[in-house]
UniProtKB/TrEMBL annotation:
The keyword Aminoacyl-tRNA synthetase is annotated on this UniProt entry: no
Keywords: Transferase
Any one GO molecular function term: acyltransferase activity, transferring groups other than amino-acyl groups
Ranges where the N-acetyltransferase domain occurs: 120-262
Protein name: Acetyltransferase (GNAT) family protein
Short name of one Pfam family: Acetyltransf_9
Length: 266
């Protein structure tokens, strides 16, 4: 397998790490990395790395069928190292819908801005704090907090707690109240930043930047030399202000399903 850039390697490693969640099945095949999680959403159902051959259409169909079986959308994250060269044509023909997502990177030893004095940042270490994190994530993206029904709640309790986990959740608090969140995942020399969010009433105060930097510094303490992420239109200006620069485009392909009842929160 050719890992063209740490931004690709990080997301592939995170997908493989989903296997530590008891309800996730990860298939790390010779030609395809794909995974399914009953009771979750498209973040934990789909595929990423692939080097598909003549059976490309059948393999694409199998990923979609597996998501249908657990009743959720699927997301297939493709990048320049995925194959075949006309993979996009095959995914489009199978009904997958693309969204181009710029992938960005910055050195972890970049000089970042100071944390806002009023903001207290903590690593999530308790199961109850995982629910605070998922509720805040929902509020950050216009979703009514789903509490105990959040599709990430139990998976994150298995994947993001414990000193040895490569995954860590962060909460920013203002007078004890959660106002911003982020997630970091370490793989070899990279730390990936995911799930950065701040509810609208608290935006514009530098909290998302501070939570991003908290994840970067944690990754640096674990040996990472570069920080990577996939930027949404909302987040891109924040990341650019921290020194992140676009290194390649990734494509998040989603497969709509008629019985889908959840919001897409990727």
């Amino acid at each position: 397998m050719i890992e063209r850039h740490p931004v690709e390697a990080n997301v592939w490693a995170m997908h493989r790490d989903f296997a530590r969640n008891p309800t996730t099945v990860v298939n790390d095949d010779a030609d395809l990395l794909w995974f399914n999680t009953a009771g979750s959403n498209s973040w934990l159902n789909g595929a990423s790395w692939c080097a598909l051959g003549q059976d490309v259409d059948a393999r694409i169909a199998s990923v979609g069928h597996a998501a249908q079986q657990v009743g959720t959308k699927a997301q297939w994250t493709t990048s320049p190292s995925c194959g075949p060269g006309d993979l996009e044509r095959h995914l489009d023909a199978a009904g997958w819908r693309p969204e181009v997502v710029p992938a960005m990177a910055v050195a972890v030893d970049t000089r970042f801005p100071s944390q806002p004095a009023e903001l207290a940042i903590q690593k999530v270490v308790k199961q109850s704090e995982v629910r605070e994190w998922t509720d805040l994530f929902d509020a950050s993206f216009g979703i009514e907090p789903r509490g105990d029904k959040h599709p990430w709640l139990e998976p994150w309790r298995h994947l993001a707690l414990g000193a040895e986990s490569p995954c860590r959740l962060f909460l920013g608090r203002l007078d004890g109240v959660p106002v911003s969140c982020s997630m970091a995942f370490v793989h070899q020399d990279s730390v990936g930043l995911y799930g950065v969010g701040t509810p609208p009433p608290h935006r514009g105060n530098g909290y998302a930047s501070a939570l991003t930097v908290a994840g970067i510094r944690w990754g640096a303490s674990r040996g990472a030399s570069v920080a990577v992420l996939h930027a949404s239109p909302l987040g891109a200006p924040v990341y650019q202000s921290l020194g992140f620069r676009v290194v390649l485009d990734m494509i998040a392909w989603s497969l709509p399903l008629g019985d889908q009842r959840e919001a897409t929160t990727t």
